[in-house]
From TrEMBL:
Transmembrane segments: none annotated. This is HAD-like protein. It comes from Coniochaeta ligniaria NRRL 30616. Gene3D superfamilies: HAD superfamily/HAD-like, Putative phosphatase, domain 2. InterPro entries: HAD-like_sf, HAD-SF_hydro_IA, HAD_2, HAD_sf, PGP-like_dom2. SUPFAM superfamilies: HAD-like. GO terms for molecular function: phosphatase activity.
Length: 286
């Protein structure tokens, strides 16, 4: 067990996942998948399989999903994929912000480092592709929510800078997000380092991606995922859940090393813990 690190660098940037963290798209994906499973006479998602697939790009095309689902031989993987994609396209415009998301982003957008006084930079690192991103953010409230991230600081799953097959739990998307942040840093300022970034994630795959990128992580799991991994929470936070095998084990953390924590919702985020100072808004009537 590693000693818990105390002397972390100042947080200068916060990088967010989107699906299941900021908006309720993961619940919509589960709903659509269950409807299709029922059509083919198969049982709905179990909590365990859902927890394993959440946050992994194209997870319902994976061996893990199909070995579990045992769809009729008459239904090809491609046919299932196309049907599910069409079902989700119909439902994604119903995506809504999750509790605490807008308040957190609003506060971070005006926050400063308590020690340096520098502003906290924001970026998005989402596995969703551009076309589905547009559907998921079509409601005014979701569009407003994602508006906290400037377009040049939104890294999506089909970003040309991402290598094929290197989605989460690989660290690539978070490292590209950091590049986008540093491209906007004034020349007089030092580039933001990975250890100065705080990643917000809802999935075990996303936590591992953030840890592999050398960043600190706040894990906000879906309640079903939290229950499923309750006994292994410390392993997930250290990126040592054992669910993913992509090599580069030197990127993994150690149990209780202090680089990651889990909170029940975005409303429970502790700004002070990370040295983030949020100015109090003074109303015009004061």
């Amino acid at each position: 067990m590693a000693p818990c690190k105390k002397d972390f660098p100042v947080i200068r940037a916060c990088i967010f996942d989107m699906d299941g963290l900021l908006i309720n798209s993961e619940d919509i994906i589960t709903l659509c998948t269950n409807q299709l499973l029922e059509k083919y006479g198969r049982p709905p998602f179990t909590r365990s399989i859902r927890a394993q697939l959440m946050g992994v790009p194209d997870s319902t095309s994976s061996d893990l999903f199909h070995n579990w689902a045992k769809l009729p031989v008459s239904v090809s993987r491609e046919e299932f994929k196309q049907e599910l994609r069409e079902q989700m396209r119909l439902q994604f415009p119903n995506c809504e912000p999750l509790p605490g998301a807008e308040e957190l982003l609003s506060k971070l957008s005006r926050a400063r480092s308590a020690s340096s006084g520098g502003r906290i930079e924001l970026a998005l690192a989402s596995s969703t592709k551009s076309d589905t991103y547009e559907l998921k953010t079509s409601r005014p409230e979701t569009k407003r929510l994602l508006g906290f991230f400037p377009p040049d600081r939104q890294v999506l799953g089909d970003d040309p800078r991402l290598r094929l097959g290197r989605g989460k739990p690989a660290p690539d998307i978070y490292l590209v997000a950091l590049q986008s942040l540093n491209s906007g840093v004034a020349s007089a300022d030092k580039a933001i380092k990975p250890e100065e970034c705080l990643v917000f994630e809802d999935s075990a795959a996303g936590v591992e991606a953030g840890r592999r990128a050398g960043m600190r992580v706040v894990w906000v799991p879906h309640p079903d995922v939290a229950v499923e991994y309750q006994a292994r929470q410390k392993d997930v936070l250290a990126a040592r859940s054992g669910m993913f095998d992509i090599g580069d084990d030197w990127q993994l953390g150690e149990v209780d090393d202090g680089w990651a924590e889990s909170i029940p919702s975005l409303q429970h985020f502790n700004y002070e813990k990370y040295g983030i100072d949020v100015p109090v808004l003074v109303s015009s009537s004061d």
